[in-house]
Amino acid sequence: MTARWSPSPRRPSPAPSRHHEAGSGTILTIVLVAALIILLPATLGLVTAVQAKQRARAAADLGAIAAVSNFMAGLDAATSCRRAAGFVTANAAQPTGCYITPEGAATVTARVTARLPVVGMRTSTTSARAGPVRQR
């Protein structure tokens, strides 16, 4: 008689365990919160720096237009620059320079100091030029 080999009946495999995923949500949350803590000051610093630069540009632009307008209205260069400095100051900037050519072109420089997160105080300085309209 020959013995026949028969495989043992298959047992159903146990249900997959979710134990290996325990805590993954917590780790993901910690990573996301850490990323926000790191990126938020950097983003705020960038936004503050851009805002300071734009404020300095706007103040210098308005100051240059004021200087040219006053000069073309007949005021001398010193008085025109003082009035331009008033416009720069009214726009939350410090006037740092003003020059008017005899032809009536003005260059006004303005500075804005801003407190940036992490890095501290930073200064943004910019100049703007304006002049009379030339006839063609």
Radius of gyration: 34 Å
The largest β sheet comes out as: 3 strands, antiparallel
Number of strands: 3
Strand content: 15-25%
| Count of DSSP-assigned helices | 2
Shape: rod-shaped
**End-to-end gap:** 120 Å
**Helix/strand order, N-terminal first:** HHEEE
Low-pLDDT stretches: none
Structural class: alpha+beta
Which strands sit side by side, in order, in the main sheet? 1-2-3
Q: Helix share of residues?
A: 40-55%
Describe this structure in words.
The protein is α+β, with helices and mostly antiparallel strands. Helix content is 46%, strand content 21%. It is built from two helices and three strands, in the order ααβββ. The protein has a three-stranded antiparallel beta sheet. Helix 1 runs antiparallel to helix 2.
Question: What is the gist of this entry?
Answer:
By secondary structure, the protein is of the alpha+beta class. It contains two helices and three strands; from the N terminus they run H-H-E-E-E.
Task: Explain the layout of strands and helices.
Layout: H1 24-72, H2 77-90, E1 94-100, E2 106-116, E3 120-130
Antiparallel strand pairs: 1-2, 2-3
Structural key phrases:
136 residues; alpha+beta; three-stranded antiparallel β-sheet; rod-shaped
